[in-house]
């Protein structure tokens, strides 16, 4: 039988260690690495002491089964530290404690911090109490009886009380002295020190328990200041670091670029095992409004490079999130066809792992445009506005046949994807782009050619059998449509004008980017900006 519990770790950075380095390492490497193992760690959060005592920092991790902490799946994490982690942790005084959960009570309005937004969770108060026992027969039973039958019930009357959990030294922590630990959580505004709280600390039963059964008592108070997700997101502490503190993980899947133009690149893993690379940059404030970008089939998040540079200069208040759509890279086995709804769900998962509660805006093109539109329909509470570009609201038999032909080209020879790339980019781009931007055209051919062949085969099937026409009538998120003037020789803009009028209340505006085809934000980034700046 599983024994749930908690790993809690106290930390005191030594003089000389930059707090930015300490926090950036913990927030972007150490914590997320553990939260990427949900079968072990359910939640993880960091607290800062409010009682003026040291250690200053505390991290807590809810563990599904304490026995797993003795297995290589966990112990190897500590044995195989990155050089950056080894350097940083060597400058921190660390103590680790393992405790088994004994009981838990919570208020009716309690929400776990993992399910709260960062804004709602910030400042939650944690009171930590640990006690040792006198060498008296039955001491533990008597203390537990007092806790369960009087003390916790009285604490529940304290304004702002949220939860009390009771622990004891874990059975896996062999050799550790027995300690009884209680963690009490309160809202930022609470009644600690008030009459109800004082009453809980002054009863005849409590006096008897403390005099007969308890030895030493420790009490600390903390305030919550960071909640981990399985995806690193901390630009705030990355930006002040020198370039020498750039980090690349051993698997090269996570990389950071410190400095005024801080960039964090990493990945998430969906429930079906798909790895989705992402990149965040722009405004480094944790609560900065976020604009996300969804790329087209066969391209990568770098298709937005030119436009993002403009956006960062024109809208420095935005944090910018980009990611690679399902089908760009290797896909989970056995392979299954993608759907537009699946792609919207992938984005939902990405936001959840990054603890982004709502997007300021979502911008997508082609398959990413359909994903954007589907996301606004399915998750209107998660996005304030959207820009959907060069997409159709439903598939057609002719389109499906065309995609099957393209799969045949990609799979037909060893260089099939390279052949498809050349055909595709020439079909996508306006002749003006091909003639005047040879480097950009070649770069896009290379980007398309690098797509995973199997990923393409199953990813493009999202465009075979979808129809959002009926659902579009219920659209309630403000949107903007954009199309390249030459996309489909103007046919796509006409199609978008047709379903624009039947989407939501019909108020969506359609903008046309001249001298651009299927990817106007790539072909003509400045002109694209001029068409969307009023909306963004």
Please give a structural write-up:
The chain is α+β, with helices and mostly antiparallel strands and 536 residues long. The protein folds into two domains: 223 residues, Alpha-Beta Plaits, CATH 3.30.70; 263 residues, 3-Layer(aba) Sandwich (Rossmann fold), CATH 3.40.50.1820. The protein is built from 19 helices and 18 strands. The strands form two sheets. It has a ten-stranded mixed β-sheet, sandwiched between helices. Strand 13, helix 8 and strand 14 form a beta-alpha-beta unit. The chain is elongated. InterPro entries: AB_hydrolase_1, AB_hydrolase_fold, AB_hydrolase_sf. This is AB hydrolase-1 domain-containing protein. Keywords: Hydrolase.
Supply the CATH superfamily name of the largest domain.
Alpha/Beta hydrolase fold, catalytic domain
Q: From the helix content, strand content and strand pairing, which structural class follows?
A: alpha+beta
Number of helices: 19
Distance between the termini: 53 Å
Give the C-level CATH assignment of the largest domain: Alpha Beta
Strand-residue proportion: 15-25%
Q: What's the number of structural domains?
A: 2
InterPro entries: AB_hydrolase_1, AB_hydrolase_fold, AB_hydrolase_sf
Protein name: AB hydrolase-1 domain-containing protein
Organism: Sporothrix bragantina
Keywords: Hydrolase
